[in-house]
Amino acid sequence: MDSDTLVSIITAALGGFCIVFGLYSLVIKEKLYISEAVVATLCGLLIRIIATNDSTPLWENQNDLNRQFSRIVIAIQVMATGVALPKKYLWKEWKSLMTLLIPVMSWMWLISGACVWWLLPDLKFLEALMIASCFTPTDPVLANSIVQGHFAEKYVPQHIRHLIAAESGANDGLGFPFLFLAIYLIQFSTGDALAVWGYKVMFYEIAVSIACGAIVGYLGRKLLRFSHEKKLVDEESFALYPVILALFLVGTLGLLGSDDLLACFIAGNSFTWDGWYHVETKNAAEIMKSIEMLLNLSIFMYIGFIMPWSSWVEIGFSRLLLMAILVHLFRRLPVIVLLYKKFIPSIRSISEAVFTGWFGPMGVGSMFYCAVAVEIIQNNIDNAIFSNQVAKYTEPIVYFIVLTSIIFHGLSIPIYQAVKYIPKYCFGYKQYEAIIEQHPSSSDLERAPVSVNIIIWLIKMILYIIDFYTDYISFTFVLWYAIDQPST
């Protein structure tokens, strides 16, 4: 298929999807509580299967396109996240954020790597950590779909919404230390790896990007305020100024070789540090929301379109499914529940801890770090630094985790809503109300700002699936073991 035909198919599909989705977006998002990411990803995957019936790369430089496209989308999204946070939020909630960004993120990296290594023992542990680092950060695009909308405003406390948004914005730029620590430990001795990692990653990419982001955000705020007071800037340019700053930082920090994603998030916080921009943009906020929705629809439909589903069959679907379930259950939830009382003051109850622990979605950020990892593997393929297995497994594993995250996290709230209303349809509304009156604790739990019911029902469903497929999975493990044994 030539490039003109391929681009025409993609643009026609995207335009057609946006037309149909736009006509029913209120029902899908506010009535069914389904995020645009779920619909766009599944639509892209379906179109790819129908149009090409193949999941091989469509372009020779597809990995470069994946990296650059996701990089721009994330930069704009983390800038928007930083701008949307309350003034001086990083200063006020530093303890909670530091806990989420250092010990919690480290746990997420290690436990995800352990899950990958356990189910793919032909990988070295450092190679498993390299793959796991791609889906260690939470995704700001998917996180926004959780912390925005009617359901979030009704059930999720504002301080939890801010915490999830801030964490997703910050840790998307902090994926580099985990990725390159694993890479350097593979490439060099431990001492050399730590030295290079400390200077090149922690200082030049992280510290320099934080400084640049803070300075650019501060100067941008001062300049825009001056122009606004002198009536030199129109409303549209005023509303789009954060996007302009994001593009500027992506270009300049990219030329410097520093972490442009982290710089964009810090710049967004610095830009609204005094809260002035929030007051002045109340009427123009819809412009940013429209841009964000168009970017979200485009990137998630693209993710669905490039899913390497044929590689999943080669690795083994049941193995990947078990890996995804283990990652989603143990990657984040246990450590947040364990630490929240003493180290995360923004989380005030066990229900909020469970909610925050579950909703750590993986999406566009994982696509970006996967593209970075694949590029490094391809550049060193002749040096035999990385095994053939890590080159084979990286992309399929990351994209499968992304797909399951989009489905699990994107459908958690609709499933909860469906389960909550089943008794009303089974017993009748009056009988249901009578049951609730007899069990006031159930009613209280249902009215709680963040209900654990979402997680309880989802975990029950996952455990039911595991129980249903126990015999099949056990047989599959025996078969893998038999196949993997060398012939005598």
Topology:
Blueprint (H helix, E strand, L loop, with lengths): L2 H29 L4 H17 L9 H23 L4 H4 L1 H26 L5 H10 L5 H8 L2 H6 L2 H14 L3 H13 L2 H40 L5 H22 L3 H12 L4 H5 L4 H21 L3 H7 L1 H14 L2 H11 L6 H9 L5 H16 L8 H40 L1 H10 L1 H8 L5 H16 L1 H15 L4
Helix pairs in contact: 1-2, 2-15, 3-9, 3-12, 3-13, 3-15, 3-20, 5-6, 5-9, 5-17, 5-18, 6-10, 6-20, 6-21, 7-9, 10-11, 11-12, 11-13, 12-13, 16-21, 17-21, 18-19, 20-21, 21-22, 21-24
Detailed description of the structure:
With 488 residues, the chain is mainly alpha-helical. It has 25 helices and no strands. It is globular, with a radius of gyration of 23 Å.
Q: What's the CATH architecture?
A: Up-down Bundle
Radius of gyration: 23 Å
Tally of helical runs: 25
Strand coverage percent = under 5%
Domain Cation/H+ exchanger transmembrane: 24-415
Protein name: Cation/H+ exchanger
GO molecular function: sodium:proton antiporter activity
Subcellular location: Membrane
Can you summarize this structure?
It is a multi-pass membrane protein. The chain is built from 25 helices and no strands.
Output the keywords:
488 residues, mainly alpha, Na+/H+ antiporter like fold, 25 helices, disordered C terminus
